[in-house]
Amino acid sequence: MTVKITLSLPKKVFEISGENVYLCYQCGKCSAGCPIADKMDYLPNQVIHFVQMNNEKALSTKMIWACAECFNCTVICPRGLDVTKVMEALRIIVLRKGIYKLDLNKVEKIEELPQIALIAASRKLTG
Ligand code: SF4
Ligand code: SF4
After folding, report:
1. 61 Cβ inside 6 Å of ligand 2
2. Confidence (pTM)
3. Residues 41 and 83 both lie in one domain
4. Which of 21, 67, 105, 110 sits a CA distance of 20 to 30 A from 8?
């Protein structure tokens, strides 16, 4: 069965990640298995629900930036939804609006930081 995704936010997420958020039936297993769930403002399944409801609040959560891309949620999801890819797609949507989460000019003692950390942070937090 082919499902046509018409709402704008789920559609954008699908175009970027290839993931259909409507696969999710809100069992909560992704959140139960997330190692940093207690540090997040919203849980992974709540963010997925925002996307399902076309609620742009998904784009302003701290959760999408806190996500460590560990793939636990993706492995555990009984519906085969790649939650990690959805979180990445949400970050890309924000970055494409020109809202960057890291200004290298404001990083203190930048010369003392490991280059790999700077590269990883730049890749994740800037466009
Ligand atoms: S584990 Fe999958 S189906 Fe369950 S809430 Fe998370 S994304 Fe939805
Ligand atoms: S990929 Fe992100 S949301 Fe998923 S379990 Fe890891 S930290 Fe949590």
Report:
1. no
2. 0.89
3. yes
4. 67
Query: What are the tens digits of pLDDT across the range 86-102?
Result: 999 999 999 999 888 88
Q: Kindly report, residue by residue over 24-61, the tens digit of the pLDDT.
A: 999 999 999 999 999 999 999 999 999 999 999 999 99
113 lines ligand 2 (CB under 6 A): no
Residues near 9 by Cβ (< 8 Å), separated by ≥ 6? 51, 54, 55, 56, 58, 59, 93
d(CA 21, CA 105): 37
Q: How many folded domains does the chain comprise? A: 2
Give residue 117's domain range.
Answer: 100-127
* Pocket perturbation via mutation, ligand 1, pick of 17, 24, 72 by most ligand atoms within 8 A of CB: 24
Cβ neighbours, 10 Å, residue 68: 12
Identify the pLDDT of residue 34.
97
In a domain, 3, yes or no: no
Which protein residue has the closest C-alpha to ligand 1 atom 6? 30
Q: What is the CATH number of the domain that holds 52?
A: 1.10.1060.10
